[in-house]
């Protein structure tokens, strides 16, 4: 009585219709949880909850990054939108240099590798930029360091020539954030920039000692790296030998190659995990005789039974990959009456499909978003300065719709507000009916907005857990964020600082697909 896989197509039938499916089977072996349908799409990694640590502050995140870089022995793999140019970022680069140096001095021929993936447009902004920060590493350790700069295939031709710096970032970005050290993986929405290490609130989860997950994300970053521009020691860039060029080559060919590379990573990991699952499940059924025969499996047998499952959700619409969107829509569709969904985004600009699902289904929603003062664009120069006002306008429209449908009880908006801070946290926590603790969270780079779904490369993980202590950690994380918020009411929009100029209202519908 596994949920049938046709249900996964539900989100693609627009407008979305809630799909009623049979309740999950309580008799399935392997402590089957109700989210096992996700493994029809992506690899499922069963781990022990003791390997999962939820961090809460930028400072904690920064310190962890430094410690992890310093103690890495085999690999450091980092994917981010960009690397900042301040002192804190320089310190990270210095840590990398130190570790590379140590590895060179080690007697054995060093296998230590550093692979960094950033966005080309964001990483090239200004005279001093991510590229100039990393070139010294490339020059000193050419054999061990790889810096890939992803360039969206949608920025090409005349558009590419005419659109100025900063504005070119609206077309499409490498938005994935993964920070990986040997077998430890940090998933976050935070970029490698001083704000994210000091006073820009985000979310961060550390998966310790999880080789399969680390291998998966290494392969994913490698795959995107292979279709990206490679930074050279003289600050030029070039594609790998024989690779289609993202903006000079044929767009369709490029996107097909990229799709194949990424899907290959997802599908091979899925097959690997299914075999591993069958093997460990099988051997635990057969008793210890099988384990002792296999020798190498002996350690497998001693692993604690997993009580936590990790599902990587990838979204790369330019390459025709929409897994994250399908899973998110299905989760929203499936959430039953009295389930509670806490959804948070630094930039409230939900896609029409997500809005329809929130307004048209039965679960309770608590949506946390940035108040204008903690929006990352607050006080920005030029046109960007109007972006917080555009978000206020989008929020007001959504709130009016909620009221019009008499859903104010079921769907609540809350604004994060904290003096001296900005807000960039994204994801969701799902509480099943009658439960005070969440059993599922989504954490990673997507914002649930148009850009995340249609323009950028995104990755997050669904973490599903049966373990009370981990559920408690996730619950505390949610509470801490929501504590710094006030509930939105009609009065919110009557405050003078919420006045939205007419031109912003007129322009917002035209530009909302770009931010």
UniProtKB/TrEMBL annotation:
- Please tell me which top-level EC class this enzyme sits in: transferase
Q: Does the keyword Acetylation apply?
A: no
What pathway does the UniProt record associate with this protein?
A: Phospholipid metabolism; phosphatidylglycerol biosynthesis; phosphatidylglycerol from CDP-diacylglycerol: step 1/2
Which residues, if any, are the signal sequence? 1-21
Q: Give the E.C. number(s).
A: 2.7.8.5
**Gene3D superfamilies (alphabetical):** Endonuclease Chain A (3.30.870.10)
Q: Which residues form the PLD phosphodiesterase domain?
A: 170-196
The protein's GO terms of the molecular function aspect are: ATP binding; CDP-diacylglycerol-glycerol-3-phosphate 3-phosphatidyltransferase activity
Query: What is catalysed by this protein?
Result: a CDP-1,2-diacyl-sn-glycerol + sn-glycerol 3-phosphate = a 1,2-diacyl-sn-glycero-3-phospho-(1'-sn-glycero-3'-phosphate) + CMP + H(+)
**Which Gene Ontology CC terms are recorded?**
mitochondrion
Q: Which InterPro entries match?
A: PGS1, PLipase_D/transphosphatidylase
A GO BP term here is: cardiolipin biosynthetic process
Cellular localization per UniProt: Mitochondrion
List UniProt keywords, sorted A-Z.
ATP-binding, Lipid biosynthesis, Lipid metabolism, Mitochondrion, Nucleotide-binding, Phospholipid biosynthesis, Phospholipid metabolism, Repeat, Signal, Transferase
* Protein family: Belongs to the CDP-alcohol phosphatidyltransferase class-II family.
Q: What does this protein do?
A: Functions in the biosynthesis of the anionic phospholipids phosphatidylglycerol and cardiolipin.
Recorded protein name is CDP-diacylglycerol--glycerol-3-phosphate 3-phosphatidyltransferase
Organism of origin is Tricholaema leucomelas
* Phylogenetic lineage: Eukaryota, Metazoa, Chordata, Craniata, Vertebrata
